[in-house]
Amino acid sequence: MDLTGIGTAFDFAKGVMDRFWPKQASEAEKLAALAALAPMIQERDDGVIQAKRDIIVAEMNQGDNFTKRARPAVIYMGLVFIGIVHVIVPTVVKLLMAFKINTITAVQLTAISDIGKITLPTEFWLAWGSVVSIYSLGRSAEKRGSVDKIVSMITGGK
């Protein structure tokens, strides 16, 4: 396991040399070319890492907090709705049904049990699932260093 990343750069440089360097080249010529090529590849890798860091820093320094967090806000609100409809309401209904408080009439108890049957509509799941999926793919691409127009539209970058 190469923790420094230098081995990866050398392996990549060797792969490039094996592909493009003439077969009749001597080992000394190949090693000299490898020694010259590896630092350039390492510099490129360092540039990619620096670009990723710059993207994250720019996002965090952005002045408009809502725009910066609008897409995640949609995701978080969806999670809140799911929590309310599928966790909190059913739990409260089950507790009320279990304790059958004396002040609750049979009609009210039936109405409460009907509230427990509320579900989120299919349209919610389609829309929310689409937003989460597209945003997740865009953020993954952005974190890998992709900065094209589509990724910028998805993540709100400039």
Structural notes for this entry:
The protein is mainly α and 158 residues long. It folds into 2 domains: 6-59; 64-155. The protein has 6 helices and no strands. Helix 1 packs across helix 2 (27-61). The chain starts with 5 loop residues before the first helix and ends with a helix. The model has no long low-confidence stretch (mean pLDDT 76).
Topology:
Layout: H1 6-20, H2 27-61, H3 65-99, H4 106-115, H5 122-143, H6 149-155
Calculate Rg over CA atoms. Answer: 28 Å
Number of domains: 2
Low-confidence parts lasting 5 or more residues at pLDDT below 50? none
Structural class: mainly alpha
Strand content: under 5%
How many beta-strand segments? 0
Shape: elongated
Number of helices: 6
| Distance from first to last alpha carbon | 37 Å
Attribute tags:
158 residues; mainly alpha; single chain; 6 helices; elongated
Q: How would you summarize what this structure contains?
A:
With 158 residues, this protein is mainly alpha-helical. It contains six helices and no strands.
